[in-house]
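re the bet — no i am not wrong, look at it urself. input seq straight from the record:
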Amino acid sequence: MLNRESTQALIKKVTSYTKHYATVIINANEQNTTRFANSEISQNIAITDANLTINLFDGKKEVSCTTNVLTDDGLKLVVQNAEEMLKFVPEGEFDVFPFSKETITDITETCEKNSLSKAFGVTERANYIKEGVAQIEAGFTCAGALNLNKNILVVGDSEDGFRYGSYDELTFNTVVTHEDGAAGAGECCSYVNTPDILQEFKKAQATAKLARNPIPPELGTHTVVLSPIAFADLIYYVAMSLNAKGVEDGISFATNQLGQKIFGENLTMVDDCYFEGLRPLYFDIQGNPRQKLSLIDKGVISAFAYDNKTAIKKNIKSTGHAISTRFIGGAIPANVIVNQGNQGLEDIIKDTNDGVFINEFHYNNPVNIRQLQITGLTRNGTFLIKDGKLSSPISTVRFTENLLNAFSDISAISNTRQLVNFGFMSLLVPAVRINKFCFTSKQ
């Protein structure tokens, strides 16, 4: 695995092979995964990978080449290929963006000190799964995966600009299934603290027991209580749409809505990489410091995520939310936090006379992203709520809902939150109750 010294040496070496101004991105990852199925470990793998992307500039010309061959010959070849491409590409819209020299808190030593790798080596992962499987009751089986990813992101340029970030990422998921097909699920993730994996096994087991013998759902509009996992599945679409590129192109619901109240007053959402427990990476793929953004303030659209190209058009600084040199969708919020409420999830259910509790969604897709109209399926634990208690489980049902309406009708928010991983985005979100939510077809 690469480190600060070796990546800095790589950047100096590869940029020395060209006369052009260059920026360099190094992504390195060590993926350690223990999978289990039919209540026994089925796979243990460790994959180490690293790649280097060099971007060459000549006025408004720009090219990008990537290699995972980090030898001298490999670096010379990737530069040779980039220089050859640079001869033929047309000029683009932008001049070279200056590499940010702004000081950023160095969290490398803190991350290495708090490394999750010490607690989740191959033996430890196997022991967690063994203990979890041991508490599964007869007639049930479990499957899932426990992953520990060690990540390094480095961004630099040919003028000694250098950013180095290193952090661990732990993810766990399990589905417990009864022999009659009823299922429950549990999941968790962490960047710093050791999560309670055994509790997720217990949660999945308890949900699967309650989910046996489901009844058909009633279509139409219902009051729903969404677990944090289910709520994250939907609020993700809101966060994704609060990017300046989507707004500029007119494909975001937030186009021409900055400063407008779009959601209910009880919905506030920020992006803050410095919030304790979230992904500790304080710069983006372009080397810009990540800024804290107040995305939604009491229902009002109050900020968008910018990268270099969208920021210069507004004559402002990038907010530090570029995620890839090849992602055409623009800058994306990466550490999303939704405000807490003042009730526990159990109390929200107790205060619901007639409704539906949804543990998870599955296979969600936009119907009309400009209107935030989303469709998807429920799974792994959906229950009627009668007189403040979970009652009969219901079978899988499809929803189709306009989230502009749904998130303007949130009537309760839990006082606890759960961290949910969506790849390049992490979300810290509560459970919520929505008064009107539409089920449209049975499966």
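see?? The two ends are 47 Å apart (CA to CA). told u. also The longest helix spans residues 72-86. so pay up
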